[in-house]
């Protein structure tokens, strides 16, 4: 079985694949101070909780946007699962040409999403990932990774409002029934949730105009379903797109697939 980790600034999404089937997944908090042993104990406990054996893990693949955690994660894979992990980067043969001016600047998760989107939905495509940052990644009709957009994540924006505006409360990130909020909470929910949906629509429309064609638009990440319900341009919600991309890359790199 394959252990796949998508390491973000806020959370680590963990998935276990048996061949092509995602048999279990978890979301845990990102802790930059966690040691290799702590990572290993956490992973083995999660596996045990799901009645999965640590000995059955014969591969580990990781996409990470937190470089300080690399050594600890590598040590975890070696010590607890006795395998050399694959870290996703532009240097791997991903099967997707990268047209970024400097490919080293592209986050591993964005490349993984591009690989998964092409395999599952074809090209051209736009992937909207609602994580710590909200990213839009564009794949050309020829299946090339072109680049995209990065904006502050929904959670970051909500937290910034709470921290810097003394009279504004923390709110639940759900869309209100009306755009004209009649309470402070409703007004914040409208501005954040409907505002982000509108921003995504505007960016996607500009992407299509610049690209000269429409793309299949896929949303992933923690708030994807909630935002997609309010955005007219998002066609698919795929919460485990990044994990699927990690599996696809593993099969290509470790298994010699196409």
Structural features, described:
The chain is of the alpha/beta class and 258 residues long. The chain has two domains: 2-87, Nucleotidyltransferase, domain 5; 122-239, 2-Layer Sandwich (Nucleotidyltransferase, domain 5). The chain has seven helices and ten strands. It has helices spanning 36-49, 70-81, 108-121, 154-164, 184-211, 224-228, 241-255, and strands spanning 2-7, 11-18, 21-29, 59-64, 86-87, 125-130, 133-139, 145-152, 216-221, 236-237. A five-stranded mixed sheet has the order 3-2-1-4-5, sandwiched between helices. The chain starts with a strand and ends with a helix.
Specify the biggest β-sheet.
Answer: 5 strands, mixed
Number of helices: 7
Under CATH, the topology of the largest domain can be stated as: Nucleotidyltransferase, domain 5
Low-confidence stretches: none
Q: How far apart are the first and last residues' alpha carbons, in Å? A: 20 Å
Assigned CATH architecture of the largest domain = 2-Layer Sandwich
Please tell me how large the radius of gyration is.
Answer: 19 Å
What count of structural domains? 2
Sheet-strand content, in percent, reads: 15-25%
How would you write the strand order of the largest sheet? 3-2-1-4-5
- Name of the CATH homologous superfamily of the largest domain: ATPase, nucleotide binding domain
Q: What is the general shape?
A: globular
Instruction: Give the integer mean of the pLDDT values.
Output: 94
The CATH class of the largest domain, by name, is Alpha Beta
Class of secondary structure makeup? alpha/beta
Strands, total number:
10
- Helical residue percent band: 25-40%
């Amino acid at each position: 079985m394959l252990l796949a980790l998508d390491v973000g600034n806020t959370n680590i999404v963990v998935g276990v694949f048996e061949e092509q089937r995602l048999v279990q997944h978890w979301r845990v908090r990102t802790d930059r101070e966690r040691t290799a042993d702590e990572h290993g104990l956490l992973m083995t406990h999660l596996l045990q909780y799901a009645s999965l054996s640590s000995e059955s893990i014969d591969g580990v693949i990781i996409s990470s946007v937190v470089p300080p955690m690399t050594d600890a994660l590598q040590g975890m894979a070696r010590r607890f699962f006795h395998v050399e992990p694959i870290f996703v980067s532009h240097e791997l043969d991903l099967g997707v040409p990268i047209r970024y001016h400097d490919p080293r600047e592209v986050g591993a998760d964005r490349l993984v999403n591009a690989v998964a989107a092409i395999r599952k939905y074809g090209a051209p495509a736009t992937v909207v990932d609602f994580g710590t940052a909200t990213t839009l990644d564009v794949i050309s009709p020829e299946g090339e990774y072109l680049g995209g957009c990065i904006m502050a994540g929904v959670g970051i924006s909500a937290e910034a409002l709470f921290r810097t505006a003394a009279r504004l409360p923390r709110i639940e990130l759900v869309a209100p029934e009306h755009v004209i909020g009649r309470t402070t909470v409703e007004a914040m929910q409208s501005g954040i949730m409907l505002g982000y949906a509108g921003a995504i629509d505007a960016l996607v429309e500009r992407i299509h105009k610049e690209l000269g064609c429409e793309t299949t638009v896929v949303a992933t990440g923690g708030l994807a379903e909630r935002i997609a319900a309010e955005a007219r341009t998002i066609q698919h919600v795929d919460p485990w797109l990044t994990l699927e991309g990690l599996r696809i890359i593993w099969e290509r790199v470790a298994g010699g697939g196409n």
